Amino acid sequence: MMSVLKLEEYENDFWKDVDNRMSWDQIIPGDLRNTKPITLTKEVISQFAKLIGDDNPLYYDEEYAKSTPYGGIVAPPNIHIVLMFACTDVSDWMRSPGTINCGQNWYYNIPARPGDTITMRGSALDKFIKKERLFAVHENVFTNQHGQVICTGRGQTIRPV
Amino acid sequence: MSTHAEFDKITGGEEVLGRPFTVTRETIADFALGSLDFNPLHFDDDYMKEQFGKTTFHGVIMHGMQNFAMITRTLTDWLVPRGGYHRRLETRWLTPVYLGDTITPVATVKRKLETNGSRWIVFDINVTNQKGVSVATGEAMAEFADVFPGAPA
Question: Which residue of A has its CA nearest to B31?
């Protein structure tokens, strides 16, 4: 089922459903996270760019975007920042309050464009303990409606105790 | 000008200076809505007085991915007019960024490389706060390809 991304429709209280989320103990590396595809619009692309502080006209000005090699408006490469939350549901463990991001590595294949329907495949790859802190390594792949990879990434978070 | 010619003009050690970004409750609220990341680490002053395992904070912190976004902006603002494609970004957060802090990213051209199929730039990334302390470091990679990635047919 196609669902158009609208930022205002998402739950903004991460304490709700907190008991339905997997703790570090329950995360199984390799298990796929529950995800759903979402469709990007020009509106949400420009809104995202503005809200994260990126004012490049490539993300909102069609005339300018057409004059670049992109040939039209595209999503910022780091659109995966919102896609990760947009494609997962309220029970996803990345929403656990106290989740601390340690850094991320992303590879960008082709840009996402308005009208693209994006699918996420995500899992934990590994988990470990270091200096009494609980770590999880995650890996996400985003593809478009043609099965083309948009971007792939991995990162580490410290999990709440 | 071709991407090849643009690539040739880039010199090792060249610095790409990002615009400074100051963190306020408004920028945090904007980033939260933009990213859909409503973690209380970024809002809740009382929550931030707690112990987080071995970690303590002194107040709400900026989203780590705001660093990522400002690094990306620095790179794409420089690359798009040159026909370069932002291929990769690897980051590590070194220390939390707090309300009132001003962060500035710098990307330094570390390496230029030509492969069989394309031309590449590797950047060192450093984000510092107003005290000159590094809050994030990383590496980025840009491609100056003959055929633009994902160009419309």
Answer: A52
Cβ of B30 within 8 Å of Cβ of A52? The answer is yes
Query: pLDDT digit string (tens) for A83-114?
Result: 999 999 999 999 999 999 999 999 999 999 99
Q: Which residue has the tokens 């660093």?
A: B67
User: Rounded to two decimals, what is the model's pTM?
Assistant: 0.96
The CATH H-level (homologous superfamily) assignment of domain B3-143 is: Hotdog Thioesterase (3.10.129.10)
Confidence of residue B137 (pLDDT cuts 50, 70, 90): very high
Task: Name the residue of chain B whose CA is nearest to A10's CA.
Answer: B36
More confident residue, A132 or A129: A129
Q: Where do the domains of chain B lie?
A: 3-143
Amino acid at B40: P
Are B40 and A15 within 8 A, CB to CB?
yes
Domains and CATH numbers, chain A: 33-158 (3.10.129.10)
**pLDDT above 90: percentage of residues in chain B:** 88
Contact B55 A58 (CB under 8 A): no
**Dihedral pair phi/psi, residue A141, rounded to 5°:** -130, 130
